[in-house]
Amino acid sequence: MAKRTAPVKKNEYINLTFVDLTHEGDGVGKIDGYPIFVPYGLPGEKAKVKVVKVKKNIAFGKLVELIEPSEDRIEPPCEVFYQCGGCQIQHMTYERQLKMKQKQVQDVMHKIAHMSDVPVHPVMVMDDPWSYRNKIQIPVGKRDGRVLTGFYQKRSHQIIDMDTCPVQNEANDHIVREMRGIIEDLGIEPYDEKNHRGVIRHIVVRAGYHTNEIMVVLVTRTKDIPRVKELIVRIRELDSNIKGIIHNVNPKQTNVIMGRNSKTLWGEDVIIDKIGDLEFAISAHSFFQVNPGQTEKLYEQVQKYAELTGSETVIDAYCGIGSISLFLAQHAKKVYGVEVVPQAVDDAKDNAKRNHIENAEFFVGEAEKVMPWWRAQGLQLDVIVVDPPRKGCDEELLKAMIEMKPKRIVYVSCNPSTLARDIKILADGGYEAKEIQPVDMFPQSNHIESVTRLELKL
Ligand SMILES: C[S@@+](CC[C@H](N)C(=O)[O-])C[C@H]1O[C@@H](n2cnc3c(N)ncnc32)[C@H](O)[C@@H]1O
């Protein structure tokens, strides 16, 4: 058979019509069936493209000029959108973003799970898809003698000089912007990643959606911060809702943002926020969903699919600070939560007390080890909820779940590909995926959250 050669060459300029979108939000054009992926291209558009990388079955291009723009294209509100690595799809209307995300879930159900017939509902939308993030973690650097804060450029550690971020909560955005001047005035040296020198690495700001309470975390390489007393005074002046200033030390050469040790420089160790009627105490290290308005919708969907009447025993695996567990405990007989981070489990127990919930119990451990142990103890269950990280559920966990035979499984996922892989395993074990509800937790980015209802086949 004749060897197929790519129909394009590196550095060649071509005219291309985009026919599809990748899951990352890049445009896909084809020449004789050979796909060329181009960031920021939209289906239906014609464009002049420079070919930048050629492989046997695929090439990558750069958009040079739009010849016929799509009606789905808008001017990105963020000035640094095309440089910043934070958002990927601000150039699409919100309606187009939602269609892309629904299709992403449908595609993986078809290609990975081989189940095209499971209904994937339209994405649950956010009424105002801006200023939603309750947490900002932003690197601090220096260029031409000036302190700057901004996210990293795509695929690099170059900080983009950024004044404002339109997906951030406005109070957090304001604090970060003002912090640059304060750090400069006090002569505190920003971290220099290349030489592993300097003091201040990241500023982390968290805000309560319902309470407006704010926590400012200063992540430094060094144990001491110069002129720390003046720094505290200046930070407190930024917003009267600041409840605590935390110092976290991260002395390592690493991409991980926070180090292990934190101490409170001023005020409270935690801020309080609410999900529904429940109150949560959130520390600097706790995982808490970043889009609080949508989190309520997500948890209501979990509750709906769990079909609780008050008499059920439920497991919440990968429970974090117990937010889903406590949400469900109000409608169940008993909820067991399991989570690998001990600090999060301490928070979960505190949160149960704070909300006077006595029918939720929390365990530290790997869900894939604790679940088989529960099975061995003969724990009888009605519903299992899982909310794993992006890599999905461990196979041992899926096996134990299948053996425990709950009537229903509710699978919360932030990664459609691993969701589809796990749904297939659960289907082989006797669970039928009935429906999937995607929820837009991260507008302007290419990420999508979803809730799946699975039932034991009779
Ligand atoms: C996507 S978060 C979900 C948290 C929680 N359900 C919520 O809505 O806030 C995933 C959680 O799983 C935890 N985790 C990761 N691997 C784990 C494992 N093997 N066993 C138990 N928990 C794990 C993480 O620490 C994190 O808190």
TrEMBL record:
Gene3D superfamilies in the cross-refs: 2.40.50.1070, Nucleic acid-binding proteins, Vaccinia Virus protein VP39
GO BP, sorted A to Z: rRNA base methylation
Record keywords: 4Fe-4S, Iron, Iron-sulfur, Metal-binding, Methyltransferase, S-adenosyl-L-methionine, Transferase
Highest taxon, organism lineage: Bacteria
Binding annotation for S-adenosyl-L-methionine: Q289, Y318, E339, D387
Family: Belongs to the class I-like SAM-binding methyltransferase superfamily. RNA M5U methyltransferase family.
Protein name (database record): 23S rRNA (Uracil1939-C5)-methyltransferase
Organism: Tenuibacillus multivorans
Organism placement in taxonomy: Bacteria, Bacillati, Bacillota, Bacilli, Bacillales
